[in-house]
Amino acid sequence: MHRKLLMNEERVRRNLTDDAGCVLCGVTQESILHVLRDCHGANVVWSQGEIKFRNGSVDSSIKFSGLCWLLWKNRNMYIFQQYNHTTEELICSSKTVVSTIKDAVANTDRSRLSWPVRIKWCPSSSGWVEINTDEAFNRDDEIHTATGW
Ligand SMILES: [Zn+2]
Hints:
Elements: H1 8-13, H2 32-38, H3 40-48, H4 58-81, H5 87-106, E1 134-137, E2 144-148
Antiparallel strand pairs: 1-2
Helix pairs in contact: 2-3, 3-5, 4-5
């Protein structure tokens, strides 16, 4: 993730802004470690979230990734929607993320897995505008769970 996610520290390095401060708490250097570990909400998720990690387990790696994703989304929700999660909401969301991941790992039915199909993007024909979207849904009940642009 180093230099891949545009924290303000990286945005300053790329001359996209002159303010390297954290948008959530105002600390002077918004680095990846700050957003995912040290910022107030992140610190609460890691210290009070009651999420257990076992060294080297796949389960722990997936939980770790899920929580990093949650914290990144939290930061972006504040920037783009001006919504600041409460500490309780973050802890609740972190439990939901971990629970969802654990259920998905436990209920993986290998027989339902299929080979990935590579889809190549192609430019649209002249005169057309193309909008790329994606979504995820539960195969069993076909309830849509996420849609992105
Ligand atoms: Zn912060």
